[in-house]
């Protein structure tokens, strides 16, 4: 029998500190080293959510072997070294660890349920599963089984499902995808929240952002309301340690911004405004300058889209005042672009051009450890795309289409939502520039992406392009685009 190969009574070896990894960190703080890890990940196209807590767990020996994503990042950071040189155990030695430790994690009264679940599994899953291998074990409820989840950091979320109490509420509402029923999400934790709940909240924010990057906002917005209510229930319950209180406030504020963006991108501007205001209030109460800058940044973008350009300029300038002490050139660059969008909406070409020059100069200074985690989307493609939007609002279609084409060419095709957005911008600019055949070709590329992207913003842009192209129906390719666009199914609530 498979169960005979593993006994839950076997004592677990205490973790041995990873001194080699600690030496590599040198005199940097764990947070500074985590920022270097995230930057190295971006350099090779990986997405890891490394923070000071993760670095501490590695150094304490709690993470004996990293998952494959972290392995690639560490070997990129320290070329010529092996995992053993970095103080990690061979991957084969950690296989089956989850199966051995799960019965203990279930806690009192849970052993029978763990044994029953184990007996129901295929034998090869019980013995061969590697909790550090993102290609072998994944949540069957998750729509993206080929993502590279951070299994070490997700240990916190898995334990939350198992141990009961307030952690159960938080994990049910916030993890792994934050799509819990409203009744559960609205429940108040029966005990004070701690670091487990704070980690679940932070993970929910990351997951919602990832899902939006991949597939757009329309299918996510209503489901994301549940974890947001749960986040504020955790705040109301009150944590004991100030560090946990700060994490919960920051996490709730970032989650409010993420949910606000889902509302924004799906055309629910009033809902978005409310969520951004909620995040701003949270930032002001706690003196969190980073959260305040983020809330004002998104408020500026919303104001521009809602036809309130003067408010967009004021919000972008307020964001810059809040962000200045943070020391992130990339953040200041993005905020200058938000200001440029407001000036463009006011038809102030000079003000827009000045803000664009400032944005480009700040962007050219490169990334730094001070860059907020939420800014991972802001690369050269986004810079080009936002500049294209500015020139488009000013009616300079030729310049707008040039930047939109660069944005589409630079965008990683893995993130379909942004690729569709930049290509839709290109199609519209080309149509208005008087190049209907090229516009139709770009529009067809967007239509081919709409099976996996749900964004009212993109659909609205495409509808505008179709109206501009109607007089050119006889032009090569335009008729096919118009017919296919007309056949698009309507999206409920869009």
UniProtKB/TrEMBL annotation:
InterPro entries in alphabetical order: TPR-like_helical_dom_sf
UniProt cross-references to SUPFAM superfamilies, sorted A to Z: TPR-like
Residue spans of biased composition, Low complexity class: 113-122
Positions of the UniProt region annotated as Disordered: 92-152
Protein name in UniProt: Tetratricopeptide repeat protein
Species for this entry: Streptomyces misionensis
